[in-house]
Design brief:
Elements lengths: L5 H4 L10 H9 L6 E2 L3 E2 L43 H9 L9 H19 L3 H11 L6 E4 L6 E4 L2
Antiparallel strand pairs: 1-2, 3-4
Pfam family, one: Ribosomal_S7
Keywords: Ribonucleoprotein, Ribosomal protein
GO cellular component, one term: ribosome
Length: about 160
């Protein structure tokens, strides 16, 4: 068999994520507590807005050690809502041409930012992120309404 065999890299689940780490955690049992960057637990994080509960993945079943799952969250409709909220923040930092593909750099930025937030507020930075998303308002934009010939522009405020 070749060096790049399937057993060397582990298998992949339906999202394209590596499941070797999950299998190891199951073999060890309930001894492993998943903490973001090995520091912040997901247990006490809650979403107080009922309309956002389904769209912010911060429950312990969505917990990750690193926000770099290599999952294909865009392939099906609404699957993005299952992506951990910290990973969505990391992916949003990779916008514009000069930053695309630099996910490790974005993870490092988020890690340092969470350290600073923890030192300044003495709170769980995951909870601070969830509250920031909850308090954020949708941006003002304009939408084209209508099909075909006449197009009417509707401005949202």
């Amino acid at each position: 068999s070749s060096f790049l065999s399937r057993s060397h890299f582990g298998s992949r689940d339906q999202l394209g994520c590596s499941v070797s780490g999950a299998v190891m955690a199951e073999e060890i049992g309930s001894q492993v507590e998943v903490k973001l960057f090995g520091k912040w637990a997901y247990d006490d994080v809650s979403v107080s807005d009922l309309s956002l509960v389904d769209y912010i993945a911060c429950k312990p079943e969505h917990a990750v050690f690193l926000p770099h799952s290599a999952g294909r969250w865009q392939k099906k409709r609404f699957r993005k809502s299952l992506c951990p909220i910290v990973e969505r923040l990391v992916c949003s930092l990779m916008m514009h041409g000069r930053n695309t593909g630099k996910k490790v750099k974005a993870v490092r930025i988020v890690m340092h930012t969470m350290e600073i937030v923890h030192l300044l507020t003495d709170k769980n930075p995951i909870q601070v992120l969830v509250d920031a998303v909850k308090n954020g308002a949708p941006r003002e934009d304009s939408t084209r309404i209508g099909k075909g010939g006449t197009v009417r522009t509707h401005h949202r405020k």
